[in-house]
Fold:
Amino acid sequence: MLAVRLPEETEARLERLAQRTGRTKSYYARAAIEHYLDELEELFWAQDAAFHWEASDKKIIPAEALYAELGL
Structure:
């Protein structure tokens, strides 16, 4: 269970949307959180991957050099 305090305007917008569509406010709150969590998880995964890459001894080479090395 999660309780969230929203600014009055956000609450009013959510209420209007729920009334117009016949869905509950909880439905839209859940959908918004799930969507945003997907984006946040991807962002933090990318940041973590970049941090680990930068901390490694691996070198970055330009794409052109990689293509040349691979004969492409």
Observations:
- Residues 25-55 form the longest helix (31 residues).
